[in-house]
Amino acid sequence: MEIPPPLEPGSTVAVCRPATIPATGSYPDHLIELGFDRLRSFDLDPVAFDSLYADNRELYDDPEGRARELERAFRDPDIDGVIAAIGGDDQIRILKHLDPSVIRDHPTRFYGTSDNTSFAAFCRAQGVVTFYGGTLFTDVCEPGGINDYTRRYLERAFFEETLGALRETGWFSDEDLDWHDPANLEDDPEREESTGRRWHGAGTVEGRTWGGCLEILATHLMADSYVPKETSGSVLLLETSEELPEPTVVRRVLRGLGERGALDVGAVLVGRAKARGFGNERTPAERTAYRERQREAVVETVREYGDAVVVTDVEFGHTRPTAPIPVGGRCVLDAGSETLRFE
């Protein structure tokens, strides 16, 4: 696996939308402007590609065009990194249009979460590491400003060879604020006290990561698309989205992985579950109960297929704060000292 060269101060980064949804509409200009301003605060030079301002439906109807745009970004010698603006629900549709040699011959740092799980899986199959984090609208445009934890790890993912040790935080937030109202982007979302990561299992594990958003991984399982053939001793990344899947769904996806032999992993890292979203607000007690049911679903199902170390409530995914986890990178975790790092 190859980690693409790190960015440097002044590097040019392409911002695009390789994922979308089958609905009309686009994203507000003030959100894009805020994201670009914050990228400039890292001394990066963001460049908007056409998809950034396009209508969702037009993008959905042109998966090949989105693939060509990604290839153009990777080929361009003046582009040092590619940042996905947002996720979606269809990125798997662009993979058949991508030329694998473009990714292999022009390794470029890519940042994106959620539906960008699909492109991360494609890149991993070509031997190229990507970063599960750094999405423009959700991570860079965080309401109230980028929190110190996320900024620290974004800087590492942008400018350093490795992410290093992943520290714990004492808080988390999964409150959504409507970014169509510019005033909301100045407000701080509600924070809750973290009780820390939960460790299950023993020993030290060293392996390469794969996975991402569970709902997208489920689609790849059904399509038999870019699920690694060799998973023994690897580190599976899992987190769930604002769709808030029930524990029965989580169990079903993991059971599918287990039955195909893909839970012979050395470890499973689980992002802290998002437990509320627009149109699905819950009380604090309900959110706590939802997260606990999901933890139980993951640990119990993984245990049916092996003795992998399972770590839940890790800082990546749809719940802030987040760190851009390398997909395809090497992860070392020690259950005894309850530490994990990326090399």
List keywords for this structure.
2 domains, alpha/beta, Rossmann fold, 10 helices, 343 residues, single chain, 16 strands, globular, Glucose Oxidase, domain 1, four-stranded parallel β-sheet, eight-stranded mixed β-sheet
Number of helices: 10
Instruction: Look at the helices and sheets and give the structural class.
Output: alpha/beta
Largest sheet strand order:
6-16-15-10-11-12-13-9
Determine the CATH topology of the largest domain: Rossmann fold
Task: Tell me the fraction of residues in β-strands, as a range.
Answer: 15-25%
Shape: globular
Stretches where pLDDT falls below 50 for ≥5 residues? none
Describe this structure in a few short sentences.
The protein is α/β, with parallel strands linked by helices and 343 residues long. It has helices at residues 29-40, 56-60, 63-75, 100-105, 117-125, 136-140, 148-159, 214-223, 247-259, 284-305, and strands spanning 12-16, 45-48, 81-84, 109-111, 130-132, 164-165, 171-172, 192-193, 198-200, 204-213, 235-239, 267-271, 309-314, 325-327, 330-334, 339-342. The strands form four sheets. Strands 6-16-15-10-11-12-13-9 form an eight-stranded mixed sheet. The protein has a four-stranded parallel sheet with strand order 2-1-3-4, with helices on both faces.
Describe this structure in words.
The protein is an alpha/beta fold. The chain has 2 domains: 12-165, Murein tetrapeptidase LD-carboxypeptidase, N-terminal domain (Rossmann fold), CATH 3.40.50.10740; 190-342, Glucose Oxidase, domain 1, CATH 3.50.30. Helix content is 31%, strand content 19%. The protein is built from 10 helices and 16 strands. The chain has helices spanning 29-40, 56-60, 63-75, 100-105, 117-125, 136-140, 148-159, 214-223, 247-259, 284-305, and strands at residues 12-16, 45-48, 81-84, 109-111, 130-132, 164-165, 171-172, 192-193, 198-200, 204-213, 235-239, 267-271, 309-314, 325-327, 330-334, 339-342. The strands form 4 sheets. An 8-stranded mixed sheet has the order 6-16-15-10-11-12-13-9. Strand 10, helix 8 and strand 11 (235-239) form a beta-alpha-beta unit. The longest helix is centred in the last third of the chain and has 22 residues, at 284-305. The chain is globular. The model has no long low-confidence stretch (mean pLDDT 97).
